[in-house]
Amino acid sequence: MKVLALNGSPRKKGNTETLLRAVLKGVAAGGGEVELIRLYDLRIQPCIACGGCDKTGECVLGDDMQELYPKILAAQRVILASPIYFYGITAQAKAFVDRCQALWNRKRLLQEKGEWRKDPGRKGFLVAVAATHGEKVFDGAILTARYGFDAMGLSYGGEFVVKGMDSRSDMAKDEATLARAEQAGRKFMD
Q: What's the alpha-carbon Rg for the chain, to the nearest Å?
């Protein structure tokens, strides 16, 4: 089963990547064929609300997002990972989600023609890490992920979120949480 994993962290080998790799270990054990992409390495412009995708379902901006659209459509599972910045996902992850407006329009156009068939087996999953312990620290990220996955034609398959990872290597030291993350990845493949 094809799994597209998108790391929205600008930091290499930080807490988000460590947690994501634990989830992906479980995904692979559950039969997932993973492609991991680091969004920071791509050139993804922000959506400019031009309306270019309204009639075609295709984005008119020519950047690296064009390579991601077919990967999203081909994947049975999509994982979005991000550290939490001011109670939301990073700018890199948000630009990616915003550019999925084209996929939402594609879905809408297919629905209007009676050609859209929702595949309940396609699911999205959020992986997020926060330094703080705020009661609602993940609320914004979860809402963004839910609606982003819906635009991609995916059902929301849940999230694995961790608070209190302040220093760069904190996640790597938390073996119990990493083991739970691996289990969550395996369960996500069910």
A: 16
For the full predicted model, state whether its pTM sits above 0.85.
yes
Sorted by where each starts, the structural domains of the chain and their CATH numbers stand as 2-188 (3.40.50.360)
Query: Can you spell out the DSSP letters for 68-108?
Result: HHHHHHH-SEEEEEEE-BTTB--HHHHHHHHTTHHHHHHHH
Distance CA 96, CA 74 (A): 17
Secondary structure letter of residue 74 according to DSSP: H
Tens digit of pLDDT per residue, the chain (190 long)? 999 999 999 999 999 999 999 999 999 999 999 999 999 999 999 999 999 999 999 999 999 999 999 999 999 999 999 999 999 999 999 999 999 999 999 999 999 999 998 899 999 999 999 999 999 999 999 999 999 999 999 999 999 999 999 998 999 999 999 999 999 999 999 9
